[in-house]
Design brief:
Helix 1 packs parallel to helix 2, helix 3 crosses helix 4 and helix 4 crosses helix 5. The two termini are 33 Å apart. Helices cover 36% and strands 14% of the residues. By secondary structure, it is of the alpha/beta class. The longest helix is centred in the N-terminal third of the chain and has 21 residues. The protein is globular.
Length: 303
């Protein structure tokens, strides 16, 4: 069975227990979460996260693994502001410890932006930061996310990720998070030639290094370099291409995570509705529902 899930929240009194409950509610058998708000470093104590209860509920529902995503504020590629870089390194170390304590083996990390100093300088900074936190005994893998190529972000090409691998001492602790929207936006033809793209990736890094897929459609044409997600099957990548990746025999064991936008209410700009239960059901059935977005709005407005 496909390991299929989505991003879930973690807040309030329920914390991680609520995250697992949300995953179960939408029909997921894996999930991804942040350990706190992705825009800041404020974090609750581990004792407040209800980890044991969450793990017990996972076992009861045959959810074997989940993924943690590092916050956006971690920019290991920053070559301009030492204070920003130092905070990023320190917080990455803390996030690794929290990820292990919560029971995940994978921490997804945006490689970072070199803020105008160039790819080589940015890669050197990223490797320096990762080398500061990884040891031979680290139990969590850092999964470098493939990026769309906007601004000065690093990771827009497989070659850039390979450069990081080459400079990290304990690179056996590295993995890759393959984001379909980002890869398409970066110019790789995963729509018509996913296997060719993967052969290229395999030669540079190794396809066994992919620890998680972010299964996102794109609002943009391939090569746009913009990074704007679309609901599954409704974007420029499309249902058939995404389902080919979803069911690819080489990656059946790899968690597939949806990061789809919420569906906006056309009559109330303040309201939007979670699509994951509908998307997961559609994916499990294997048949595209062109009316899914209307169905979501119709059901939401029936209450």
């Amino acid at each position: 069975m496909i390991k299929l899930g989505c991003h879930v929240g973690m807040s309030g009194k329920e914390m991680m227990l609520g995250s697992v409950q949300d995953a179960i509610r939408v029909g997921a058998n894996t999930f991804m979460l942040y350990t706190g708000a992705p825009q800041n470093t404020k974090r609750k104590e581990l004792s407040e996260l209800r980890i044991d209860e969450a793990r017990a509920l996972m076992r009861e529902n045959n959810i074997e693994e989940f993924v943690v995503h590092a916050p956006y504020i971690i920019n290991l590629a920053n070559c301009v502001k030492p204070e920003t870089y130092n905070i990023a390194v320190e917080f990455l170390g803390l996030e690794l410890a929290r990820t292990e304590a919560m029971g995940s083996a994978t921490l997804v990390l945006h490689p970072g932006s070199h803020v105008g100093e160039g790819v080589t300088a940015g890669v050197d900074q990223i490797a320096k930061g990762i080398n500061s936190v990884l040891t031979k005994d680290t139990k969590v893998h850092i999964a470098l996310e493939t990026m769309a190529g906007k601004g000065s972000e690093i990771g827009r090409s497989f070659e850039e990720l390979a450069m990081i691998y080459d400079k990290v001492v304990y690179n056996d602790k590295l993995r890759v998070c393959f984001d379909t929207c980002h890869v398409s936006d970066a110019g790789y033809d995963i729509i018509h030639d996913f296997d060719g793209v993967m052969n290229h990736f395999d030669k540079l890094i190794g396809k066994e290094q992919i620890a998680v897929f972010h299964m996102n459609d794109s609002k943009n044409v391939p090569g746009a370099g913009k990074d704007r997600h679309e609901n599954f099957g409704f974007g420029h990548i499309g249902f058939d291409a995404l389902m080919y990746i979803m069911n690819h025999p080489d990656f059946m064991h790899v968690p597939k995570i949806l990061e789809s936008p919420f569906v906006k209410d056309p009559d109330n700009a303040k309201k939007s509705y979670e699509p994951y239960q509908y998307e997961i059901a559609m994916i499990r059935e294997g048949v595209f529902n062109p009316n899914m977005l209307e169905d979501i709005l119709k059901e939401a407005n029936s209450f």
